[in-house]
Amino acid sequence: MTETENIAYDVVVLGAGPVGENVADRTRAAGLSTAVVESELVGGECSYWACMPSKALLRPVIAQADARRLPGLSAAVQGPLDAAAVLARRDYFTSDWKDDGQVGWLESIGADLHRGHGRLSGERTVTVTGPDGVRKVLTARHAVAVCTGTRAVLPDLPGLDEVKPWTSREATSAKAAPGRLVVVGGGVVATEMATAWQALGSQVTLLVRGKGLLNRMEPFAGELVAEALTEAGVSVRTGTSVRSVTRENGTVVVVTDTGDRIEADEILFATGRAPRTDDIGLDTVDREPGSWLEVDDSLRVTGSDWLYAVGDVNHRALLTHQGKYQARIAGAAISARASGSAVQGDAWGAHAATADHDAVPQVVFTDPEAASVGLSLAEAEQAGHRVRAVDYDLASVSGAGLYGDGYRGRARMVVDMEREILLGVTFVGPGVGELIHSATIAVAGQVPISRLWHAVPSYPTISEVWLRLLEAYRDN
Amino acid sequence: MTETENIAYDVVVLGAGPVGENVADRTRAAGLSTAVVESELVGGECSYWACMPSKALLRPVIAQADARRLPGLSAAVQGPLDAAAVLARRDYFTSDWKDDGQVGWLESIGADLHRGHGRLSGERTVTVTGPDGVRKVLTARHAVAVCTGTRAVLPDLPGLDEVKPWTSREATSAKAAPGRLVVVGGGVVATEMATAWQALGSQVTLLVRGKGLLNRMEPFAGELVAEALTEAGVSVRTGTSVRSVTRENGTVVVVTDTGDRIEADEILFATGRAPRTDDIGLDTVDREPGSWLEVDDSLRVTGSDWLYAVGDVNHRALLTHQGKYQARIAGAAISARASGSAVQGDAWGAHAATADHDAVPQVVFTDPEAASVGLSLAEAEQAGHRVRAVDYDLASVSGAGLYGDGYRGRARMVVDMEREILLGVTFVGPGVGELIHSATIAVAGQVPISRLWHAVPSYPTISEVWLRLLEAYRDN
Q1: Residue B3 clears pLDDT 80, i.e. is over it
Q2: Which is a Pfam family this sequence falls into (chains A, B) (predicted)?
């Protein structure tokens, strides 16, 4: 008894997270009729269960840590945060998990929102099954952009469902701090959520399978963050896997591979992400359901002339800002191709997501903050570059010492010795979150070392580490 | 009965502030024998009476303001700062006004320190009169570098001596907060010291002759800072001059040009700087005592082949970091000329202080912070560039909203429409102090707008204002 409506568009976007929104923004700006299909909240993971709520939880933690490092202010902030107030502020930043604002924005750009589950159903076609069971068939004259993102991956442990473990969603939207929280994982979600909930009143145990934290960054990032988490009261256990998890009378019981038993009120698994491509009809267009979608630098799926995959789903860089960058480029590329204009697909062209390869930035909002852009030393060496790593102890920078007593941090730049440009930069320390964009411009801009000498850091800021890095490069 | 010793050096540096230290560092690194002459503390104004103590005073003020904008933390920090603790920390950062550490550093690089008053006494010659009256004549085979900086200028008001007014020196080194403090001036020293002492317990009145504050920056910088100072309790009176100042029974009495009478415990004049060149023997080398020394881009005094003037004294940019930049370049140029190597004097070359013209950065450590680099819109227009100013309200950036409730701030980039590069950038708002270096690299690196699109700001940082500025440039 379901009716089917057929609607033709220039572009159909699957997924209304920040990535889908930005694709639509660009195709609409080019005058292309655009449908956006979303089965959950418009605004996506980032707005409700990732960037926004996590940073809302972390910001007061970081500001408190900063204040504690300053005599004259520190005594006032020795007590715990007012968790209820922090959580209420978090609710504000997630709009109480309502998407009216973002729906209004989609309307304002003239995109059509179709609520429901969208599935590809053949070339240039998406079938949407609405919440009421009504089906609509959307056809796309020019492009379908898959922007469905990722979901958390849970490990394959027997009985895990009954434990009702947290993923990043529960960890960012919980209404109160659990008394005891076990966090499994050593990446960004794990370290950020361990930082937040420990400060909000939980006793956190962090179980990390590998040797260290944040292992996609330079090794000192994870080392400094682990040290600080431990000082904040988190029990950090590296080299530890989970053998079993059960819930007994409400209590979570974790047994590790070494036989240790840990009791907790909740357990968060931050153990990776999988693409949300398992139920979007990829089989109807000869692609493997559940796979990451490989794309070229215009974000078009390999071998297709109409299918794009933008954001997490293409596995190039699982970061909101990088997905938005891709979205701007994909939207522009779709529009250029639709109008028959030239596609500027050369490196750093308007239609090439070159930064995905060379200049992906990331800030981890722990205390200390860990921020990086481009390649780590190991990545640069592996890629076959002739490189030199230049390190500097951030604590020796005047601006860092002034920033807070007992400042600990470190900086590294990875220099391409052939071209004398930077391939990567990492800053770890309090107050470096806004500093990394200087490195992003240096790396993406391929600004030569000889010119960086003329980019004078203001005294006394933490930015003066740039001068110290250049001096260390010159003198050693 | 004074003895005279004659000592020959390759280079003689007059003044051991950060600028003199950096010149010596570079000439010593080149193997040139180097004398440094200092009549006060090694480390100079910056270490004892400017950058270091002022930032030590301001950092807790800023951290407190940040904390107050965060529910969950704000309640704890409503009370005043512990001024005694803040002042003690300031004393630590000035090494209690002792220079042993910096003397040790000069020794470590193998420069000879001559304490005493140094005066030029003819070509390539400096005569030092020591504290004991002993005179030494230092000759310089290659160069004399004048790095004597500036001193505060007091207005020509009758009886001012008896008032014992504060200058930047007393304002940064005072041992306690005066109950009532009048600050005269509207520049960096005035706004920073008004911010610091108001937070440390003084009732501050700021008297500004002109219409606004920070008038070398974009107009919105002074407007936002004035607004915040007022909210912090400072009485900001623009368009107001001082007609007379007296001290009556210990109380400072200021009468303004409008006839208002203001009583205070201390008065700070932050009304400009004059070069410390009045008593350094400039007459012996045919230069005007008390004048600013004009130099070329290698920092060599116009018309001389051996006399350099580096830092504030040449009036190019009265900022410690810019003086240090000049010092590195001057030291390298002196060394190159001494060894007969080629001087790389073209724009952005190793021996040209090109950034002095195009990319001088500055951070004002008020709350909000005000930071800029390069040309303001007015300066760019005056210089004859065809430009466009692009503005953005920082409060609309997610990362700024997360940074603190009630965030107020603004950003501007000035685009050179011929070359599509940036001539200047200004950020005003909490947390922008480390962000400005991104702009410094963009301006000094002359990174084209088309490439800046590939420098992706991390979400959700304040740095995302970069994306908003680019979008505003594209769409308007």
Answers
A1: no
A2: Pyr_redox_2
Cβ <8 Å between A398 and B433:
no
B57 lies in a domain? Answer: no
Q: Which amino acid is at A476?
A: N
Domain span at residue B393 reads 368-475
Confidence of residue A302 (pLDDT cuts 50, 70, 90): very high
Q: Which residues pair with B180 in a beta bridge?
A: B203
Does B26 share its domain with B136? yes
- Phi then psi for A399, rounded to 5 degrees? -60, -30
**A chain contacts of residue B89, beta-carbon cutoff 8 Å:** 70-72, 405
Last residue of a domain, one of B249, B271, B293: B271
Q: How confident is the model over B75-86, as pLDDT tens digits?
A: 999 999 999 999
Question: pLDDT band at A3, cuts 50/70/90?
Answer: low
Spatial separation of the C-alpha atoms in residues A161 and A174, rounded to whole Å: 18
Q: How far is Cα B126 from Cα A178, in angstroms, rounded to an integer? A: 72
b or e along B319-348 (b: 16 or more beta carbons within 10 Å of the residue's beta carbon)? bbbbbbbbbbbbbbbbbbbbeeeeebbeeb
| Eight-state DSSP code of residue B69 | T
Kindly report whether the peptide bond that precedes residue B448 is cis, defined as omega within 30 degrees of 0.
no
pLDDT for A323 equals 98
Helix (H/G/I), strand (E/B), else coil: A415: strand
Interface touch B445/A452, C-beta < 8 Å: yes
Residue B50, in any domain of the structure: no
Alpha helices in A73-167 (DSSP H): 83-93, 100-108, 160-163
- Mean pLDDT across chain B, nearest whole number? 97
Using an 8 Å CB-CB cutoff, list chain B residues near A28: none
The partner residue sitting opposite B455, judged by closest CB among A64, A435, A441, is A441
* Cβ separation A72–B79 shorter than 8 A: no
Amino acid at A39: S
A180-184 sheet: strands from edge to edge: A235-237, A203-207, A180-184, A266-269
User: Residue A123 class from Cβ within 10 Å (0-12 exposed, 13-18 middle, 19+ buried)?
Assistant: middle
Which of B82, B335, B441 is the mutation pick for testing A, counting most A CBs within 10 A?
Answer: B441
Q: What percent of chain A has pLDDT over 90?
A: 99
> Which ipTM score applies to this complex?
0.98
| Residue B156 pLDDT > 50 | yes
Let me know whether B209 and B180 are in one domain.
Answer: yes
The verdict on residue B393 lying in a domain is yes
Query: What count of residues does chain B have?
Result: 476
The nearest alpha carbon in chain A to B438 belongs to: A438
CA atoms within 13 A of residue A51's CA, in its CB half-sphere: 22
Distances (CA, A) of B197 to A138, A371, B177, B203: 65, 34, 6, 8
Task: List the single residue in A with minimal CA-CA distance to B398.
Answer: A52
Q: Which of A466, A429, A435 is nearest to A451 (CA)?
A: A466
On chain A, the residues whose CB falls within 8 A of the CB of B350 are: 450, 453
CA distances from B244 to A246, B178, B255 (A): 80, 20, 5
Two structure tokens written together for B281: 């023997």
Provide, as residue numbers in chain B, all residues whose Cβ is less than 8 Å from the Cβ of A324: 456, 459
Q: Which of A298, A330, A355 marks a domain boundary?
A: A355
Per-residue confidence band for B2, with pLDDT thresholds at 50, 70 and 90: low
Say if residue A151's pLDDT is above 90: yes
Handedness of CA A424, B350, A464, B441 (dihedral sign): negative
CA distance B286 to A257: 83
Token pair listed for B291: 């004048």
B147 part of a folded domain: yes
pLDDT for the residue numbered A4: 81
Percent of chain B beyond pLDDT 70?
99
